[in-house]
Every structure is written in C-alpha cells, then in structure tokens.
C-alpha cells in the first residue's frame, strides 16, 4: 500500500450523489453510494496527504483524520469545491452531480389533484463544477474527473477530458453490476490527457484508490 507518497499534499475529494429538492419532503438524486470517493479519501490520508472530503449525502463512516464537509445540492457542492480548490494540489471529483435541478422548490408539499393524471417537472441545468474550477486552474494543480457510463465508455470519457480540462479521468462501466454503483468492487480505466490509458483488475474500491494514489504520485509533479 502507498506509504507517504502524498506527504504534505493538499487533496480535495468529492463523493456521493447530490440531492436536488423539489418540495419539503422530496428530492431528485442518483444511485451513487460515495464508496469510491471515501476509499480515495482514506487512501490519500494514509499516503500522508491533508485531505478534505466533500460528501454529498453519503451514509458512510467518516474516515480518520480527514476533514469532512457535508453538502446536499450541486449548488452547495460547487460553493464548497470553489472554497477548497484554490489551495489544493489535487482535486478528485468522484461525486455524482445532478445535471439538472427542479426549476422551483415548492415551500409546501406538492399535492396530487383529482383531475391530473400526469404531471410535468421543469428542470434547469446545474453548473458544471469541473468546468467552473478548471477556469482558475494553476499549472501545478491536478484535476481528476470520473466518467460513469453505460455505453461507449472510452469515447465518452475521452470527450470529457477535453471538455472539462482534466489531467486524468477514471472511467467506469456502470452497466456492469459487479462494479460501479454501491458495489464493494470496481474495475476502471485510467485515461490521461495525452491519450495514455491503463485498466485495473476487478478489485476492491480501496485497491482502485491505492492505484490512483500511486499514479498521482508518479505521473504528476507537485510544487514543493
Ligand atoms: O458530464 P459527466 O457528469 O458525465 O462528467 C462526470 C464528471 O464531471 C465527474 O467527475 C463529475 O463529478 C463531474 N461533474 C461536475 N459538475 C457537474 C456534473 C458532473 O463537476 N454538473
């Protein structure tokens, strides 16, 4: 396991899935458990990094010696990432961010009505957090994104590297139930901005996290 590979580095990890409220009792969300992001936060802390874990609604134990920030919505996640990114050496965006949120949040519970058999929700686009922070990226900062895809995994992931100005993307096939959402294991392809790629074995999320830590320590140079 990586020992002190990231000593003195400041790492911000996001994990979990955002919840977008609709009314006081309902929200829109996704199937992210937060397990991959939490495993990365733990592995980075063991490797000597100063870790801030921004958790969107994950129901998991807080890793030891990690600074935990809890958020609910994509808007709150954006604010927290912006606050923490400026002084970070590495940002790892493992959170599943809702692409859209309800246009209005009702202050009272929305009621069904006798005459309405269908209902339409209006959604508005959430900001892209990676694109927003990439705009202020310093040359010595490293940004890692995730791509959870059900089809055309590598083609879609490659597009995201360019669109979001990433150094590295962790691509995982969520159509395979042995890996991905809420499972204990994962199998990912690490795709670099220069087109290089490497695929892991099917292994625990902590093992994937350790491989990511080793890659970060080896491939990227950080300011001393
Ligand atoms: O575009 P897509 O959501 O598939 O990209 C996934 C990557 O982008 C993840 O790293 C995710 O955390 C990040 N993301 C983001 N802001 C959004 C949507 C996704 O930073 N609004």
UniProtKB/TrEMBL annotation:
Binds 1 FMN per subunit. The keyword Ligase applies. Keywords: Decarboxylase, Flavoprotein, FMN, Ligase, Lyase, Magnesium, Metal-binding, Multifunctional enzyme. The keyword Flavoprotein applies. Its EC number is 4.1.1.36, 6.3.2.5. Residues 6-217 form the DNA/pantothenate metabolism flavoprotein C-terminal domain. Pathway: Cofactor biosynthesis; coenzyme A biosynthesis; CoA from (R)-pantothenate: step 3/5; Cofactor biosynthesis; coenzyme A biosynthesis; CoA from (R)-pantothenate: step 2/5. Its cofactor is FMN; Mg(2+). It catalyses: (R)-4'-phosphopantothenate + L-cysteine + CTP = N-[(R)-4-phosphopantothenoyl]-L-cysteine + CMP + diphosphate + H(+); N-[(R)-4-phosphopantothenoyl]-L-cysteine + H(+) = (R)-4'-phosphopantetheine + CO2. GO terms for molecular function: ligase activity. In the C-terminal section; belongs to the PPC synthetase family. This is Coenzyme A biosynthesis bifunctional protein CoaBC. The chain holds residues 186 to 409 of 409 of the full protein.
């Amino acid at each position: 396991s990586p020992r002190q590979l990231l000593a003195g580095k400041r790492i911000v990890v996001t994990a979990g899935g955002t919840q977008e409220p609709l009314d006081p009792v309902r929200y829109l969300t996704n199937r992210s458990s937060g397990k991959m992001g939490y495993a990365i936060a733990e592995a980075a802390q063991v490797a000597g990094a100063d870790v801030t874990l921004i958790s969107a609604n994950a129901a998991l134990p807080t890793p030891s010696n990690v600074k935990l920030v809890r958020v609910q919505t994509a808007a709150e996640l954006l604010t927290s990432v912006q606050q923490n990114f400026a002084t970070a050496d590495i940002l790892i965006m493992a959170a599943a961010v809702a692409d859209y949120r309800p246009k209005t949040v009702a202050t009272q519970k929305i009621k069904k009505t006798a005459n309405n058999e269908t209902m339409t929700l209006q959604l508005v686009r959430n900001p892209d957090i990676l694109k927003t922070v990439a705009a202020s990226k310093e040359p010595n900062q490293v940004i890692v994104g995730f791509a959870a895809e059900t089809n055309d995994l590598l083609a879609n992931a490659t597009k995201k590297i360019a669109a979001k100005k990433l150094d590295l993307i962790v691509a995982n096939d969520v159509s395979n139930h042995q890996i991905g959402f809420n499972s204990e294991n994962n199998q990912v392809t690490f795709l670099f901005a220069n087109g290089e790629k490497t695929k892991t074995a099917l292994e625990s999320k902590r093992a994937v996290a350790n491989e990511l830590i080793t890659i970060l320590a080896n491939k990227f140079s950080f300011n001393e």
